[in-house]
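Narrative summary of target 7.
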Amino acid sequence: MMPRWRWWFLGALFLAVVIAAIYLPILRRNIKQAAKLQQRSEEQARRELTQPTVINPADPKVKAKLFWGSGGDDGTVSAVIIELPLAKDPVLRSKQVLNTLLAGPVDTELRTLPPDGALLAFYLLPDGTAIADFSEALATSIPSGIESEQMAVDSITKTLEANVPQVRRLKILIHGQEVDTLAGHLDLSQMFVVNTNVGPGPRAEGTNPNPSSAAVSTLKQALTHAAATVKLAASPNKSAQKQ
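Modeled conformation, tokenized:
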């Protein structure tokens, strides 16, 4: 006959297993939610540090071309002419047209970028290399598939080509980081050609018409510094300073 203490021990062990089976999934779900909240708080702090560029009514109005979905089933984008007051500075101008592109067209079915996406930062080197840093929503909220991902990138590059001739090529970052693909299909490790018809124009000393590793390295350092600033801003003991 089995001693009574063994029955108590087996009973307690069985009860512990049952409790673990019930609460472990709940604990795992809470940990995932906490991680998502932390990620959102960091991205929110990053957005506060890089507020979207507001259209300035004092800027001269021009007929800007913004590229959204064509409405067909061929996965192409087409231009929509919109009168916008745009700055002459190419960086500000790029931010203005990209933020308008993110806001979406009147017909939401023609949208190529997710409504919760945001442009966090935009850089332009003297050699025409641009780097656009988008929020993580650009990768997580866009429908996964080569066609939808290609349309998203096409709408960005064609909009820049039509409105900011100084941009020759574009590197897309997600939340300050280089990623392999946009949403699992389109390669984001490459530079996207924007405008091949730009003349040589003035360049800073030592720059090259092709994107140099030194130039990209300089921007990576700047983004690393920005990411560190975001972490400090997201800390519960520190608040971000708006610039």
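The first strand starts at residue 61 and ends at 69.
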